Amino acid sequence: MTDTLVRITGLSVDLPDAGTPVRVLDDVSFDIPAGTTVGLIGETGSGKTMTAMAIIGLLPEGAAVSGSIMFGDTDLVHCDDARLRALRRDELSMIFQDPLSSLNPTQRIGRQVGEVLRRSGLPRAEVQERVIDMLDRVGIPDPAGRARDYPHEFSGGLRQRAMIAMAMIARPSLVLADEPTTALDVTVQARVLSLLRKLQVEEGSAMLLVSHDLRVMSHVAQDLVVLYAGRVAERGTASAVLHRPAHPYTRALVRSVPAIRTKTAIADPLPGTSASPAQRPSGCAFHPRCPLATDRCHTETPALREVAPGRWSACHYAEKVLS
Ligand SMILES: Nc1ncnc2c1ncn2[C@@H]1O[C@H](COP(=O)(O)OP(=O)(O)O)[C@@H](O)[C@H]1O
Ligand SMILES: [Mg+2]
């Protein structure tokens, strides 16, 4: 058995939207076991980024949060800023979609990558040495020379490698990677992802990986959490979720990807449009798009329940979907 690193229970987030709060996450629960990769999937707007932001304590101004995010004995929802800053220095790190927005344009790459070590009081010479070693490990050529460059002197791929170096240098116990390769050229995406994966395994970190690429997920993630309109539609091991979905939404998602679909070579696009949390349909939010929907689905919100050992689904008819 692996230890649980993070336990999220009943996490709900309301964001102020022109005065009326919008519930962008609703009763989200899942665990991140230490040293493993948990994949988070779902269409745009389903709450993937907000989940990562809630864990690292960077939700937008005015967010109202309930539920708990236990990291060891610390509840990240209720802990003070000083503790959260210390955790962000020592234990939690985040890799964003767009490295340019998270790198400081006026600071040399080496300085930024070493920042977290400097703040933890490591001597200058040792920081310098660790930075160059890390830049080398993420595949940046001439690391000692390139450490003196500014972000604009790096290509997109090198910038994301520098971001990975920055996220991994303090050997965090959890890395949050929010679509870490989508801003990159397709040809370098796979290489950057496998680099991230390699470092994560070497450092023994756990990872919450947000990606809409199910093929990537099937290779990288041990567990999968599927979000729909801010709620967990289903979760389980990645292979079970992808090969034997327990929710019609996941089934449609899997069928929309040619390589994952087994029955025919042609992908079926997802029917209808995704539900916005601001105008969440009644009952099961997926019902307007669901081929199995009955009257019950229009009125009764399905609870997330264990439908097979380790399989959780929020569908009234999960057993039917599974069979
Ligand atoms: N700053 C914000 N203020 C209000 N609503 C927001 C804000 N950021 C995101 N949202 C809304 O929260 C929902 C979830 O967003 P997000 O977590 O970014 O989705 P995802 O990452 O899955 O695409 C979306 O409906 C989005 O419109
Ligand atoms: Mg997002």
Describe the SSE topology.
Layout: E1 4-17, E2 20-33, E3 37-41, H1 48-56, E4 64-71, E5 74-75, H2 81-90, E6 92-95, H3 99-102, H4 109-119, H5 124-137, H6 143-146, H7 156-168, E7 174-178, H8 186-203, E8 206-210, H9 214-220, E9 223-228, E10 231-237, H10 238-243, H11 248-255, H12 295-299, E11 305-308, E12 311-313, H13 318-322
Parallel strand pairs: 3-8, 3-9, 6-7, 7-8
Antiparallel strand pairs: 1-2, 1-4, 4-5, 9-10, 10-12, 11-12
Helix pairs in contact: 4-5, 4-7, 5-7, 7-8
Task: Put the structure in a nutshell.
The chain is of the alpha/beta class.
Descriptive report:
With 323 residues, the chain is of the alpha/beta class. Among the domains are: 63 residues; 77 residues, no CATH class. Helix content is 35%, strand content 24%. It contains 13 helices and 12 strands. The strands form 2 sheets. Strands 6-7-8-3-9-10-12-11 form an 8-stranded mixed β-sheet, sandwiched between helices. Helix 4 packs parallel to helix 7 and helix 7 packs parallel to helix 8. The longest helix is centred in the middle third of the chain and has 18 residues. The chain is globular, with a radius of gyration of 20 Å. The mean pLDDT is 92. Magnesium ion binds next to helix 1. Adenosine-5'-diphosphate binds next to strand 1, strand 2 and helix 1.
